[in-house]
Amino acid sequence: MSDAYSPVPELNLLKAFQDRTGPVFYSEGFELHAYGEDAGLGTWSEDPEFVSRFIPFANATGSGSNYAFWRCDDRPDVADLPIAFIGDEGDLYIVARNLLELLQLLTIDNEWLEPDFVEQHTGAHVEYVAWLDETFGLRPPEDARALRDLSKEDDARFQAWLGRFGIE
User: How many domains does the chain have?
Assistant: First the structure.
C-alpha cells in the first residue's frame, strides 16, 4: 500500500510542498484536503452517476467551496481532466482545463478573476510561485482572464452534462 497522497503525481508534489509550508496559505483559500473526500456533491444530485464523475481534492475558498476533477471521460491521466469549482453558494462550473492550468491560476493568489484588486499576497505565495516554476516550468499568467477563458469549451460541455441531472 502506498503512502502517497493520491494517484496523481502532480498532486503528490503539491502535497509535499504544502506540508513543507505548514499552515500558511500559498494561494488565498486553497488547501488540499483528503483526496476523493466528499465535497457535498450529494446536495446537487443523489444520482450515483453524477457523484461518481467527480474527484474532490482541495478547498477552493475558506468558506466551503471545493475543487474536483470532472471525469468527463475515461482518460487515464487524471491530471489532464477538467477542474470543476463546486461553490458553497451554488456555483458549479469548470475553472481550468487541467490540473496544471489550475496550479498556474493559483499564482494570482487572491480572487484571481479580479487580479487588479490583489494588494497583498498570502504568506507562502512567493515560495509557491518559485516552486511552480522549478517543478513544472510554469509562471504566473500574463493574462489570467485569457487563461481562464481557455476552459470555456469544457465548461459548455460540463453545463450541458449538468442539464441531464436537472442542474442549471
Answer: 1
Beta bridge partners of 92: 86
Cell 458549479 -> residue = 92
Assigned domain for 3 exists? no
The pTM is what?
0.90
Work out the number of other CB atoms within 10 angstroms of the CB of residue 60: 27
Q: What are the residues facing 56 on neighbouring strands?
A: 68
Would you place residue 2 in the very low, low, confident or very high pLDDT band (cuts 50, 70, 90)? low
For residue 93, the enclosing domain spans 9-161
Residue carrying the nine cell digits 467527480: 54
Instruction: Give pLDDT tens digits for 111-130.
Output: 544 444 445 666 788 899 99
5 neighbors 12 (Cβ within 8 angstroms) = yes
Q: What is the DSSP letter of 149?
A: H
Residue 26 lies in a domain: yes
Residue 165: HSE in the Cβ half-sphere, 13 Å Cα cutoff: 18
The residue with cell 496544471 is 100
Residue 4 lies in a domain: no
8 Cβ neighbours under 8 A, 6+ residues apart: 35, 57, 78, 79, 99
Residue 82 lies in a domain: yes
- The grid coordinates listed for 67 are 475543487
Strand stretches in 3-82, DSSP E: 31-32, 54-59, 66-70
